[in-house]
Amino acid sequence: MELFFFYYLAGVIILTALLVVALRNPIYSALSLLIMFFHVAGLYVTLHAEFLAAVQVIVYAGAILVLYLFVVMLLNVKREDRYHPQFPIGAFLGLVIITEVLLLAFRRSESGTPPMPPAGSVAEAVGNTETIGDVLYTTYLFPFEVASLILLVAMIGAIVLAKRDLFEA
Amino acid sequence: MVPLSYYVILSVIVFVTGVVGVLIRRNIIIILLSVELMLNATNINFVAYSYYFQNITGQVFVFFALTVAAAEVAVGLAIIIALYRSKSSINVDEFQLLKW
C-alpha cells in the first residue's frame, strides 16, 4: 500500500516537473508546478513530516506560486517559439547525470542493505510540530534569527529593485 | 516499505529536470521555476533521510531552505520586473551586457 502511494506521488511529481520545463506557456508551467507542490506535500505526509507538508502547501503553493502567477500576468508574456539553441547539449548533460546516479544507486543496493526506518516514528510521542519547534528554538536558534534577517533583506531588496524612481524624487 | 534509494532516485530525476530547464529555456520566469524544482528535489531528499535515520534535523533544514526560497523568489521577481522595464523583454538572450 505504501509502495502504491509512493509510485503514484512520484509519478505525478516527475510528470509535472517535466511539464514545467517543456510547456511553452508560462502560466501552464506555473500551474503544473502547483500540482507538483501538492504532491510533494503528500510525499511529506507519507514520510511523517506533517508540519512540513502544511508549510509546503501554505508557503509554496499559497505564497510563492501566487507571486509567480502575478508577475506572469503583470508582464503579459507571449508564448516563446522555440527552445534555446543549446537544447541538445542540455538534454545530453541531463541524460548523463541521470544514468550515472541510477548506476550508483543500483550498485549501492547490491553491496549493502539500505537503512530501514524503525517501527515508531521519531515524533510519535509528542507530535511532529512540537519536535521541530523544540529543535528549532534550542539547537538552531541562531540560524533561525539569521533566516529572519534574510527575509528582511529580501523584503527591502524587492522594494528597492521594483520601485521605479526611488532615489530621484 | 519503500526503500530509501527510491526517494533518492526521485529527487535526482526532479533535480536534473530543473538543471536541464535552466539550460534550455530562454524565458527567465521559467528559469526561476526550474530553480524551484531543484530546491524541492533537495527538500524531498532531506525529508526522506530525516525519516529513515530518525533525525529531526533534516526537517529543520527543509524549513530553512523554504525561507531562502521565499527570499529568492521575492528578489528574483523584482529583478525580472526591473529587467522587463529596461528592455521590454524577459528573453535571457537579450541580456548580454556582461558577455564578452
How does this model look, in words?
The complex is a heterodimer of chains A (169) and B (100). Chain A is mostly helical and 169 residues long. In chain A, 75% of the residues lie in helices and 0% in strands. In chain A, helix 1 (2-22) packs antiparallel against helix 2 (26-46). Chain A is built from 6 helices and no strands. The relative contact order of chain A is 0.06. Chain A is globular. The N and C termini of chain A lie far apart (64 Å). Chain A folds into 3 domains: 1-81, NADH-ubiquinone/plastoquinone oxidoreductase chain 6, subunit NuoJ (Four Helix Bundle (Hemerythrin (Met), subunit A), Up-down Bundle), CATH 1.20.120.1200; 83-114; 126-169. Chain B is mainly α. Chain B has one domain: Helix Hairpins. Chain B is elongated, with a radius of gyration of 17 Å. Classes of the chains: A mainly alpha (169), B mainly alpha (100). The interface between A and B is large, with 83 and 69 residues.
Write the layout of secondary structure elements.
The complex is a heterodimer of chains A (169) and B (100).
Chain A: H1 2-22, H2 26-46, H3 50-75, H4 87-111, H5 128-138, H6 141-162
Helix pairs in contact in A: 1-2, 2-3
Chain B: H1 4-24, H2 28-52, H3 57-87
Helix pairs in contact in B: 1-2, 2-3
